[in-house]
Write a structure and sequence with these properties.
Layout lengths: L1 E6 L6 E6 L2 E7 L1 H4 L9 H10 L9 E4 L3 H15 L4 H13 L4 H9 L8 H4 E3 L2 H10 L6 E7 L6 E9 L2 E9 L4 H11 L8 H7 L8 H8 E3 L5 E3 L15 H6 L13 H29 L3 E5 L6 H10 L4 E4 L8 H13 L24 H10 L5 E2 L2 H13 L4 E4 L13 E5 L6 H9 L9 E5 L3 H4 L11 E4 L10 H4 L23 E7 L5 H14 L3 E6 L11 H10 L4 E4 L2 E4 L19
Parallel strand pairs: 1-4, 4-5, 6-11, 11-12, 14-20, 16-18
Antiparallel strand pairs: 1-2, 2-3, 6-7, 7-8, 9-10, 13-21, 14-15, 15-19, 16-19, 17-18, 20-21
Length: 611
């Protein structure tokens, strides 16, 4: 039984293939088209999924779309009617597209699928899942748990913005929901917009900026914007927002409440913006904690599964884990809309078709999230040669040894190995790596290599068996979705003068013996590395530990600001030649910047717009 899941037409289009209940391939369209957050029908992602199993579209039993367009259209119409005549301009802009394409999405999807095979009766093969059903299915069915409480949180699906329920075996039931326009995801996006970042892509910047500020406005948020109940249910005061009917997230009343107009993206960040980020982060954590405490009490479960865009807030996830109401937490690595493709396929297999499910209680069904394209060594060499790259091919032992030596020399390494990751995080397949002990590496990687804001933190990749010695965490965190503090014995005591610093001035003060991955509040977004899912990355960390005593590496995604993570060896070579990455390691090929043809260097810094 093969089921193809699709998410598309909003942002982060993706495709995923499930065979007999097992996720065998998944990828986002942006990785192939090189358009960040590409929302188009995922033609290339589907092609990849089919080619990964050497099948045609005829071999697929069902194609499942991740949401129900008619219900979404109903919400759009009801919202405009409720607020009429306000919002007529945005209504005018939205209606032609809906009437032309989205309202007749089943027909549109069928037409798109005919490019794979025009003779298939798509009307009989095409299924639709609810948006939050897709999120919930992506959270529970690939999890290692036989039973669990399930919670999904995002901006909005059809109507739901928050949904809670339970999963047991192949059964999944969502029993409670909060509906649009009341949304924790849209609250966070409103502050993303207000602090000058892009909605649906800049939320993680707000999370990264928060530790530089003080949550001075959190009471103002709860006094004016959010009516939060003890069980975590909430309602927003819509008089402060413009997302229901307008073309922006916030309005003048919101701006007056927080002391000025929204920051323009090119404007300097100041302490007020940092305090706003800290405040919405604190408010979000409080809402999430009340929701999870209530869910734990209602279900009695010790296991929690999370998905939806808000589940990418790894700081809040860490707080939920430390809160202790749930013993075990599993978060879908592609928690946003891309993961809806996985969830739609899994929902069809287990819920629509009633197929069984088996778990072992420890291993999840995401294969480390290494579900994207991979390339054989001969293919890598052929592609690099065609691109004009100068490389040396070495055996596995030499590859690990030479890479560790380059890391110790504080070089920035492009690390391209095995299958590409599914979801927004690079996990050692398409990564830029470096020495976390270097006090200058965080700023250097941000400004010289990634071409992005200097305040943004980097994540540590750490051997699973050593995580508790270096961080206040002793559970699996393979998908970089839990934040915890660095261990007390590796922290550095700050002077009184250093403790008195505010804002970005905190950035250059080393906080620990691994300063490049220690955020200003002593926290870190941790990836535990496991030998069974990524043996080569594990071997690299093992060798680095043998050489230095440190089982930790900087791990950030292999791309520059505004660019999707690299997919192919050619993508990796272009990014290498367009940035200050010093060494590129692709399969068993090692490329050094000084050996390359200078004529192949490109200006990558201004190639992509602000993300």
């Amino acid at each position: 039984m093969r089921i193809l899941g699709i998410s598309a037409f909003y942002h982060d289009s993706a495709a995923a293939l499930v065979e007999d209940g097992r996720i065998v391939a998944a990828a986002q369209e942006e990785r192939f088209t090189r358009k960040k957050h590409d929302a188009a029908f995922p033609v290339e992602a589907i092609r990849y999924c089919l080619s990964a199993r050497n099948i045609s579209i005829r071999d697929v039993d069902h194609v499942v779309f991740y949401e129900k367009p008619f219900i979404k259209f109903e919400r759009l119409l009801e919202t405009y009617l409720a607020f009429a005549p306000k919002g007529f301009r945005s209504f005018q802009m939205a209606m032609p597209l809906w009437l032309k394409e989205k309202l007749f999405q089943k027909r549109l999807l069928g037409e798109e699928l005919t490019q794979f095979d025009a003779d298939v009766d798509w009307s009989s093969k095409l299924l639709f899942a609810d948006h939050h059903q897709s999120h919930a299915a992506s959270a529970f069915f690939p999890s290692p748990f036989e039973e669990a409480a399930v919670m999904t949180l995002d901006g909005v699906g059809e109507w739901a913005t928050t949904a809670c329920g339970v999963g047991n075996g192949n059964q999944l039931s969502l029993t409670k929901e909060i509906q649009f326009p009341h949304s924790i995801g849209l609250l966070y996006s409103a502050f993303t917009y207000y602090t000058g970042f892009k909605v649906n892509s800049g939320e993680y910047k707000v999370m990264g900026l928060a530790p530089y500020g003080e949550p001075k406005y959190v009471n103002r948020i709860f006094d004016h914007l959010v009516d939060l109940k003890q069980d975590g249910s909430y309602r927003l005061d819509l008089s402060y927002f413009d997302y229901c009917t307008g073309l922006t997230m916030t309005n003048d009343r919101f701006h007056d409440l927080f002391g000025g107009a929204p920051r323009k993206p090119e404007d300097q960040l100041d302490q007020r913006h940092m305090d706003l980020a800290a405040s919405v982060q604190k408010a979000t954590e409080e809402i999430v904690l009340r929701l999870t405490r209530s869910l734990a009490s209602e279900t009695g479960s010790r296991n929690l599964c999370l998905a939806g865009g808000v589940a990418l807030n790894c700081v809040a996830n860490g707080k939920v884990l430390r809160d202790g109401k749930f013993k075990n937490i599993w978060i879908q690595p592609a928690a946003g809309d891309a993961g809806g493709a996985v969830g739609a396929a899994m929902a069809a297999y287990h819920q629509f078709l009633g197929k069984g499910r088996t778990t072992d209680g420890t291993r999840d069904g995401m294969s480390g999230s290494y579900l994207g394209p991979s390339f054989s060594q001969p293919e890598i060499e052929q592609r690099l040669t065609a691109a004009g790259a100068i490389y040396t091919t070495v055996d596995d032992s030499q590859l690990i040894s030479d890479t560790v030596q380059a890391i110790v020399e504080e070089k920035a390494i492009g690390w391209f190995q095995g299958a590409m990751e599914f979801g927004p995080r690079a996990l050692g397949g398409r990564s830029i790596i470096g020495d976390p002990r270097s006090p200058s590496m965080q700023k250097s990687l941000n400004l010289r290599v990634k071409y992005r804001e200097s305040f943004r933190p980097f994540a540590p990749a750490v051997l699973r068996e050593d995580v508790a010695d270096w961080f206040e965490l002793d559970v699996d965190s393979p998908y970089m979705l839990l934040v915890a503090d660095v261990a007390p014995d590796i922290r550095r005591t700050m002077s009184d003068a250093e403790q008195a610093l505010f804002g970005i001035d905190k950035l250059n003060v080393p906080r620990s013996s691994i300063p490049a991955v220690t955020h200003v509040d002593y926290s870190a977004r941790i990836q535990t590395v496991h030998a069974d899912t990524n043996p080569r990355f594990y071997a690299l960390l093992k060798e680095f530990k043998a050489r230095t005593g440190c089982p930790v590496l900087i791990n950030t995604s292999f791309n520059v600001r505004g660019e999707p993570i690299v997919c192919t060896p050619e993508d990796a070579f272009r990014c290498f030649m367009g940035s200050d990455v010093d060494v590129l390691v692709v399969g068993n090929c090692i490329l050094r910047k000084e050996a390359q043809d200078p004529a192949l260097q490109i200006d990558y810094k201004n190639k992509f717009e602000l993300d």
